[in-house]
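Researcher: I'd like a structural prediction for the single chain below. Treat it as a standalone chain; there are no partners to consider.
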Amino acid sequence: MRVVVLGAAGQLGRELVRVLPSAETIPLARADLDVGDTRAVAARLDALRPDVVVNAVADNRVDVAEQDPAAATAINATAVGAIARACAAANAFLVHVSTDYVFDGRAHRPYAEADAPAPLGAYARSKLEGERLARLAPRHAIVRVAGLYARGGSRGKGGSFVDRVLARARAGEVLRVVDDQVTAPTWARDVAGTLAALLPRWAAGTAPGGIFHLTNAGACSWYAFARAVLQEAGVAATVEPITSAALAAPAPRPAYSVLADTRLAALGIPPLRSWDAALRAYLAAPD
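Model: Treating it as a single chain, here is the predicted structure.
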């Protein structure tokens, strides 16, 4: 099974490349392929003829998207359409990574895969449009994640949320973290492990595609998560809870974006471990 991983230098991409067989995995980072170049995407995938393409590329600069929605749309939607068409031409299975932000956060229970999306901001709208365009590949799965973190973090963010909290605490800063946004913090390595189990089945046609939610179990606010990070790491710091209104970020965020992973059990795939167990493992991992 030949797998192309787009966005191989990102949080999930790096973890996926780590767990997939190296001889059968082709990692493509931004420097290797600009997914915004639709012709280049079509030519490269035609030449590689993969069995599966995992699109882990995203412009996740949520606040920037409010000022420049075209840039977010180009990567999160238009490029996805080009990738999906190339997968259709190559008869490759497309795994497209999406986000909990496609929901508006007004629910009082975890969102299931069948729940209707209602994006709030420009970034969220671009990701939902990307989901629509991913369906241009006849064989596809849309995988929604939430609160993702991994070593190195996301491009331009100075590390993952966990690592930023620890760095600021060790520098003696007072941390002010929103307490009215609830999610399921998720270690990218756990998502990668589950995807690695699913990819051969998707490629062989022995498991259905469609929408899947993959997050660590449980939920907490970002404030509670920050406190847990410091406690587990044994780092003392002052953490103050604030509201989203006080933060005054340019882009709206869903107040509650917990995802229910309802489809894994039907495939015999165990649910991802709890977010606090995953955090402990992350902090104990050597890399």
